[in-house]
Design a protein that fits this description.
- By secondary structure, the chain is of the alpha+beta class.
- It has one domain: Roll (CBS-domain).
- It is built from five helices and five strands; from the N terminus they run αβαββααββα.
- It has a three-stranded mixed β-sheet with strand order 1-2-3.
């Protein structure tokens, strides 16, 4: 199974935020779209990613003053991404190893979607169910 299979199922919409927008604006967008992270984009260029976890850590360290800071001061600038052609199993392993839950999907340098660890798990479950169905059909129909 490829990342493109997951995107075909879930869609390619990605909620983004500009690096100059405030953390307060970020929180509003996270709540509005009911997501756990946003891709930080400067025009068409992905420049970072920021999650609820990032905000919680900075809030604990620095207090409510972070609400008026630009997203660029809190975001993770070294974005780990994948491509639509990447294998889901290898991406799942990488997400687990790096302890990341959101991964932007880039195609020819352009944002093509985002996958979460939940998307990866759901995709693997769908694949297992399909495999099981095919095996059951093979067993009941004989060889």
């Amino acid at each position: 199974m490829k990342i493109s299979d997951i995107l075909r199922y879930k869609g390619t919409a990605v909620v983004t935020i500009a690096p100059t927008e405030s953390v307060r604006d970020l929180l509003a967008r996270l709540a509005e779209h009911n997501v756990g992270a946003l891709v930080v984009a400067d025009g068409e260029q992905v420049v970072g990613i920021i999650s609820e976890r990032d905000i919680a850590r900075h809030l604990n360290d620095r207090g409510a003053e972070i609400l008026d800071l630009p997203v660029s001061e809190l975001m993770t600038a070294s974005v780990v991404s994948c491509s639509p052609n990447d294998d889901v199993d290898s991406i799942a392993g990488g997400m687990t190893e790096l302890r990341i839950r959101h991964m932007p999907v880039l195609s020819d340098g352009q944002l093509a979607g985002i996958v979460t660890i939940g998307d990866v798990v759901a995709g693997r479950i769908r694949q297992l169910e399909q495999d099981r169905g095919q095996l059951e059909q093979y067993i009941t129909q004989g060889s």
